[in-house]
């Protein structure tokens, strides 16, 4: 029976991945219906900032534009949405991608969570049933993928460090214009009139590396918005509307110390940002940050793509390997073989992910 269930789960997973582009979403009518359900509160997602598995209660199930009381009658392999009273899953927002994982009852049903979105305060976990069936009122265990979450933490804290380094190297006029915190990379858009030189990119990357290797603790606390805006050196996204209180993330100095003397000039040497994302506890978790590319995406807007952790080590190794290949080609006498290998190398290099500096 277990083997059959696992085989069905594998087939369902294939179907779910094919339909990944057709993500189950709540529209305004669905949200209105939820708001009329007295027993379905807005989701408490504060546990997302912790690292523990938690228990929650199934408050709503969504499928086919309806809210059934159970998953029992839902065909195998079809996407379903599940809303709990509380969750430790991070819903996609603020440029950070969603968590994946599973929601289950021990020795019972299990939902393979492949996406998490928030709609007007309701966090919906989307995926397919691996086996069994859930019903409203079930107490469930929430387990996010630690591997994916760690990569997201690394990249999000790395984004803050990159933002700090950009201001230090390019000047105070640098402002964030957007970002993406994905599992495999980070992307940071910022205002700057010209492209970065190789020397500037090297300085930016070196400063990021130096910050990471300071073994700095990462602090995060909700602070009244007016108080937070008064902190010396604080960074916020231009045009963004922030909640009150706002979550302040500081790398290397506790929020309590910042608030004791908010205008202290030394705080400009600290990464301080408004942020609702997940972060590492200490910068040593990040290991390294390597810039892959810097480019222009619009007039006065530049973009940096970078990687952290194991991915950073991988692209560094690949860069070293390419240096060796190029050196070998340069030592070859000119011939048709050399020309062919050069063209082949240029083609491969165009597709390779290697360090830009």
Automatic annotation (TrEMBL):
All residue ranges annotated as the Alanyl-transfer RNA synthetases family profile domain in the record: 1-318
Entry-linked SMART domains: tRNA_SAD
One record GO biological process: alanyl-tRNA aminoacylation
A matching Pfam family: tRNA_SAD
Coiled coil: none
Gene3D superfamilies: 2.40.30.130, Threonyl-trna Synthetase, Chain A, domain 2
GO cellular component: mitochondrion
Endoplasmic reticulum in keyword set: no
EC number: 6.1.1.7
PANTHER family, per the entry: ALANINE--TRNA LIGASE, CYTOPLASMIC (PTHR11777:SF9), ALANYL-TRNA SYNTHETASE (PTHR11777)
Family: Belongs to the class-II aminoacyl-tRNA synthetase family. Alax-L subfamily.
Protein name: alanine--tRNA ligase
Organism annotation: Friedmanniomyces endolithicus
Record lineage: Eukaryota, Fungi, Dikarya, Ascomycota, Pezizomycotina
């Amino acid at each position: 029976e277990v083997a059959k269930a696992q085989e069905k789960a594998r087939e369902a997973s294939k179907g779910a991945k094919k339909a990944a582009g057709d993500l189950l979403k709540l529209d305004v009518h669905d949200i209105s219906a939820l708001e009329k359900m007295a027993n379905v509160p807005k989701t408490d997602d504060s546990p997302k900032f912790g690292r523990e598995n938690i228990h929650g209660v199934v408050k709503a199930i969504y499928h086919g534009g309806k809210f059934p009381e159970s998953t029992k009658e839902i065909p195998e392999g079809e996407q379903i949405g599940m809303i709990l009273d509380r969750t430790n899953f991070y819903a996609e927002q603020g440029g950070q991608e969603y968590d994946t994982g599973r929601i289950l009852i021990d020795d019972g049903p299990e939902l393979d969570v492949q996406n998490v979105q928030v709609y007007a305060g309701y966090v919906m976990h989307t995926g397919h049933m691996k086996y069994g069936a859930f019903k409203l009122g079930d107490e469930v265990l929430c387990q996010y993928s630690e591997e994916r979450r760690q990569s997201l933490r690394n990249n999000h804290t790395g984004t803050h460090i990159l933002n700090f380094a950009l201001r230090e190297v390019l000047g105070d006029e640098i402002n964030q214009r957007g970002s993406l915190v994905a599992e495999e990379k980070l992307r940071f858009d910022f205002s700057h009139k010209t492209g970065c030189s190789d020397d500037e990119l090297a300085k930016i990357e070196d400063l990021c590396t130096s910050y990471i290797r300071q073994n700095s603790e990462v602090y995060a606390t909700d602070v009244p918005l007016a108080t937070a805006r008064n902190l010396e050196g604080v960074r916020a996204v231009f045009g963004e509307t922030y909640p009150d209180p706002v979550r302040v993330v500081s790398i290397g100095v506790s929020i309590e110390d910042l608030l004791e003397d908010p205008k202290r000039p030394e705080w400009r040497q600290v990464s301080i940002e408004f942020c609702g994302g997940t972060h590492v506890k200490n910068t040593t978790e990040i290991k390294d940050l390597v810039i892959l590319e810097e480019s222009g995406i619009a007039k006065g807007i530049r973009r940096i793509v970078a990687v952290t952790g194991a991915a950073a080590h991988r692209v560094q190794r690949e860069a070293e390997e390419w240096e060796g290949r190029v050196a070998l080609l340069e030592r070859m006498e000119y011939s048709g073989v050399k020309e062919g290998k050069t063209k082949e190398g240029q083609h491969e290099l165009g597709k390779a992910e290697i360090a830009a500096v």
